[in-house]
Design goal:
alpha/beta, Alpha-Beta Plaits, 3 domains, six-stranded parallel sheet, 8% strand, RCK_C_sf, transport, ion transport, membrane, RCK_N
Length: 618
């Protein structure tokens, strides 16, 4: 039996362990950890200290890490939410810029459209294949963008979903276009070029089979029983699914990354990402073991000898960097309609990162003889440089962007105060615009963000940076002012995400075909009084004050209470467990109920009790 040297793997994990610790300790927030890991790989690789050799088993682990990274990228996509938000009927601009999938498609095809004239212009001065360069320019490095967005908690937000979708579309389209173009150059157009459609068929068939299996109660019970046992049945099944699509991709002779991404997207249709313990396990296995190996080995494998003729390659390198930037940033500026110009620019810059797929495409171009070895070295160098630079610029513009709020509330009454406090509890950025100076001390005492104005009018709306995706709530006490503000939002600013008070039985504030949402204060009051009569005890307990009792959802994240019984934990006496969700199951917890990592517990209690609940569970 051959002896395997574990020393290189040990060095890799020392680096993977130290890098985030040091960056956090030094409070270096603008340098992504993945970039430092790549640089450390270069230093420890054959061109500097030569401590980490590029052995077959290390190469296998690195490629597996890349596949897991792309799989997790597919898993992050909220497919059902994306499809449900697609506009139906007449498509308006507001529908387009509010939908993650449509915006991502616009960015990619905009990038592809700009790449053609840019490639033609470059070909006038440098001998290079126009079609090949057109396909090459829009490629995106998911391996760079995903970890950065994940580290900032962006993947679950709209901005991160758009970045993720654009990267995924660019990756899939680039693989398809490169495969077809290379096939045409080698053998002309043949039916075999359409083999990539097989993976779509496998996706559909696997989805149908999976849906039917999930309806079988015996199968559900087996999954639940074996999920946290030594068998870890869901983890094993997930890895098997990943490998199935990787094998299919290999069989049809396309990039394995396409199979990994489709496997992740398919898994996203079956997993509730907010409640599944499976994601904790996959994250731990992937980001804890495989993915760090991939990034450090990227640095180890970088061929610094390609920079030997760096001076001669400078014109093409600079041209490629400009091309990567221009063709990506300009289409991404459509995001300014939703996120503002700085945020849009930051997103475009992040999408400029090029790494694995670009370098792989360059290798294909070299083998097809559409580019020279010098061109290949220039493409690799340009990809490395922009992959190092773009995340740094992104961090600068992303962190120093102007203050922005997802929800704007107009009205300085107690309703506005209570609503703003509840929104703050959910971690959503909110600004209350008020002209009632008497309530300002309450906002200050509760640390709720507000903007005081002397006179609330339509001019106030014009001065605020309200974007297409923002929610505007009009709750002033003045009926005429409510009507004036709502009409201005709808007709002058063309803003559709508005909630306002219902002003009359026919809510004649706006035309009947409006898609605005109305709050009927009279109906809410009647319902509350009904509850006071029919359910007096519960209403009294919950309504004495907002700070007294409230309901909150808490995700169980602590490993030390995993599989413990409810009765084994000293929960606060001033609160109670109301409901427990595990995957698609919802039940009422009791003393003998097990608490599992990844469960979502609905609790009720006062502020002190909720704080204790969070300390015990999170």
């Amino acid at each position: 039996m051959d002896t395997i040297n574990y020393w290189p793997l040990f060095i890799i994990f020392i680096i993977a362990w130290i890098v985030p610790l040091v960056l956090s300790w030094l409070e270096v927030s603008k340098v992504p950890a993945v970039i430092v890991e790549i640089i450390m790989g270069v230093i420890m690789g054959p061109f500097v200290f030569d401590l980490i050799p590029d052995t077959p088993y290390m190469d296998f682990l690195a490629k597996t890490g890349f596949l897991f990274l792309i799989f997790l990228a597919g898993l992050e996509i909220d497919v059902s939410k994306m499809l449900s938000s697609l506009p139906r009927g007449k498509i308006r601009m507001v529908d387009v810029v509010s939908n993650s999938l449509l915006v991502a498609l616009i960015i990619y095809f905009g990038s592809l459209f700009l790449s053609l004239p840019f490639a033609w212009l470059v070909a006038q001065f440098i001998e290079i294949d126009v079609v090949f360069l057109t396909i090459l320019l829009p490629t995106v490095a998911l391996s760079i963008t995903v970890p950065i967005l994940k580290a900032e908690g962006e993947l679950s937000r709209k901005f991160g979903q758009i970045m993720l979708m654009e990267g995924a579309i660019a990756t899939i389209m680039s693989i398809i276009l490169i495969s077809v173009y290379s096939g045409v150059l080698k053998n002309g157009f043949q039916v075999e070029l359409l083999l990539f459609t097989v993976i779509f068929a496998v996706f559909v068939v696997t989805y149908i089979v999976g849906k039917r299996m999930m309806r079988v109660r015996t199968f559900q019970h087996l999954l639940y029983r074996l999920e946290h046992a030594a068998s870890q049945i869901r983890v094993r099944g997930t890895v098997a699914l990943l490998l199935l699509f990787v094998i299919v991709a290999h069989w049809i002779n396309t990039e394995l990354v396409m199979g990994a991404f489709f496997a992740g997207t398919l898994m996203a249709l079956f997993v509730n990402k907010e409640r599944s313990a499976l994601l904790f396990k996959l994250d731990g296995m992937s980001y804890g073991f495989f993915i760090p190996i991939f990034f450090i080995m990227v640095g180890v494998k970088l061929d610094l000898s390609s920079l030997a003729q760096f001076q001669d390659s400078i014109p093409l390198i600079l041209t490629l960097i400009v091309g990567f930037s221009v063709t990506q940033i300009l289409p991404a500026l459509i995001l300014s309609r939703v996120f503002g110009i700085k945020r849009a620019f930051a997103g475009g810059v992040l999408l400029c990162a090029r790494m694995g797929l670009t370098i792989a495409a360059a290798q294909i171009g070299l083998s097809l003889e559409v580019i020279s070895p010098a061109d290949n070295a220039s493409i690799v160098t340009a990809a490395i440089l922009i992959s190092l630079i773009s995340p740094l610029i992104y961090k600068i513009f992303s962190s120093e962007g102007e203050a922005h709020y997802g929800i704007y509330i107009f009205g300085g009454n107690r309703s506005s105060l209570l609503l703003a406090e509840r929104i703050k509890m959910h971690g959503i950025s909110c600004l209350t615009v008020l002209q009632n100076k008497d309530i300002i001390p309450e906002f200050e005492r509760k640390s709720i963000k507000f903007k005081a104005v002397d006179h609330l009018s339509t001019e106030t709306l014009d001065k605020l940076d309200i974007r297409t995706g923002d929610m505007v709530i009009v709750l002033t006490e003045n009926r005429a002012l409510n009507q004036e503000l709502t009409r201005h939002l709808k007709e002058e600013l063309n803003h559709h995400k508005v909630i306002t008070k219902k002003q009359s039985m026919t809510h004649d504030i706006i035309n009947a075909d409006s898609n605005l949402k109305f709050v009927d204060i009279d109906e809410i009051t009647a319902k509350y009084v009904e509850d006071m009569i029919v359910r007096p005890d519960s209403v009294t307990a919950l309504a004495e004050s907002f700070g007294m009792y409230r309901v909150e959802e808490i995700h169980i994240k602590r490993s030390d209470i995993h599989r413990k019984l409810v009765k084994e934990i000293a929960f606060p006496p001033t609160g109670s467990l109301v409901m427990q969700r595990r995957g698609s199951e919802i039940f009422i917890p009791h003393g003998d109920t097990h608490l599992l990592k990844g469960d979502v517990i609905t609790v009720i209690g006062n502020t002190a009790a909720l704080t204790q609940f969070r300390e015990l569970l999170e």
